[in-house]
Write a structure and sequence with these properties.
Length: about 80
């Protein structure tokens, strides 16, 4: 198994969030950095899955333009 080199960094966090992450690491018998990496990976994966693909957004924008007058009429009722 190949070990990926780690890069040190410094940041700040809410003390309660930090304590909760440290508690999770202790409860799981894992290193804090491993739990933090899992949390960051999960955040990145979740964020990527929530983004709309450009081609979908283009179709949506085209639909808005095509149906602008209908939207205006419906908004008046």
């Amino acid at each position: 198994m190949m070990i990926t080199p780690r890069v040190k960094f410094s940041s700040q966090a809410d003390p309660e969030l930090l304590a909760a992450m440290r508690q999770i690491a202790r409860n799981d018998g894992r290193q804090f950095q491993a739990v933090l990496e899992d949390a960051m990976s999960h955040y990145i994966e979740t964020r990527a899955s929530q983004q709309v693909r450009p081609e979908v957004m283009a179709h949506f924008q085209a639909s808005l333009e095509k149906n602008r007058r209908l939207g205006e009429l419906l908004g008046k009722s």
